[in-house]
Please model this.
Amino acid sequence: MRKNVERIAQNKIPGQWLLLSFLLVLLSVICCLVPLVSYAEDNPLSLMRDDVLSYFKPLKGKVVSVNNGIAVIDIGEISNVKKGMRFIVFREGSPFLHPVTKAPIGTLEAVIGKAEVKEVGHDTSTAVILKGDVKVSDKVRISETGVKMLFYQGKNVDWGLGDSYYRLIKETGRFEIVDTAIETDNDSEIIAEAKRLNADVVLILSAKDAAGDTMLKHRLLWADNSLKFAEDEVRVAVAFMKELRFGEEFFGPQEGDVRTFVDLPFGVRLIAAGDIDGDGKTELLMSTGRDIRLYSPGAAVVRSGLYEIKGSPKDDHLWLDLLDINRDGKDEVILTLMKDDMVFSRIYEFKNGKFSVLWEGDVFLRRIGNELIAQEYERGEGYKGAVFKVAWDNGYKKGDNVSIPRGVNIYDFIFINESDGKRLVLAYDDAGYLNLYNEGIKIWRSRGDYGGFQTTFKRAAPIMMVDRGEWAIKDRLFMQNREILIIKRIPIVEMAKGIGYRKSQIRSLWWTGVSMEERIIIDDIPGKALDYTIADNRIIVLEMPMLGIKFGNILKGENPIGTVLYIYPLKER
Model:
């Protein structure tokens, strides 16, 4: 092809310059596509995924001998058995009969125990009996049911790379992946979290530099005994990383992805999601500012209210969070409120079908990661003193101060953990701008504010003519797989924000290590977004209509005052 192009160029045949241009463009396109095809065929992440799947391939076999806690089964290397695999052991029981003809149509099976492969031969394998009284002729099986996996991405793994691998694992359909908010390099803490979440297996992903490339490694561990049964490492070339980033679509619903909305007949100001009763399912908590109502979200909509935390007419709720403080497998409710110009916080637990107060104190409270933090309050001034950790040991105990820049308060900030071990702080200032700090030094500031805050208070002044400014409860900052979600409100008139907001957005920020990347993940939320949460792979946004009135309800003769719950799907990760 190249020779033909050269011949046309040398002869300068009239009318063929157009053909020459076409052939040159075609040649360039082919050259560009070749490396892409190569990477598609040799995707290192696919190789790692296949390694994981190989340990959970459905298999069947039979126990042929048992001796001193060791079982020999009749399948081995030729059946793709691997060391570290776990089999469920079954025993056949009585046959079950057709209800009409009484003819035998199958045999009942009872689960006897569990065995883990230690040695693999050509056509047999030996396995340690982990549980049960296993006998000869019992059956062994790796079933096709989903395996519950805790996927843990280490701090040193590039976000986009780890996210791509997460999605490859999830797309197999073989695993029910559970997420965690913990951030640690300690395997025992990860295993403890996996046990708390009832995961069967843990995948720990880590990375290190290798002459410009990345060495990506996963380790597979059984959650019940912390035993590592598999490990694989691949080299991810710089070119592959660039290609990955070029085509990467970061998580998030795009414009027009709204699945449903719920028109609430009452005003709601705050929302949080978690497992209140320990059944493994997510519940929603909504605060009206005085009362808290517990809901069970259905597949697409919110079902009727179940239980309530009733407040007094003077209560003014400021902050709502959920956290399993006492590690009993159920999330406790963390509520901060103002009453009679004083701030109080309460921790509620759900027990025996009702909420009861576990603790109460005169401080601000908030969850950050899997920790509880607090700050004192001064009447007429707002926040007072340093933000400090709260240790829970059958009661509230004050811990160490939280290391954050001077002037940053409890509801202002979120941490960003860097791969080199540094902990950056992203925080709102009183003007509504976001600032990024590295060891107390400001290294980035947003180009604009994010639309103001919903809950503000005037600082006390000795005389009415003196304005000492305001203190505010800032908007929720939510960390989701290394991206930080924020609310952006767009006013009807930019110079007169008090009039109202024509729309709101959910945006994400991602610190690359050099710059802050910002993008819109949900656009055109009508009116003013009040609060939001993430539940069951959905973003749930509380919204107040423009000017606070549902004009459509007036025409229908319905209550025009209230809020709307918008439910957006997250893309599969």
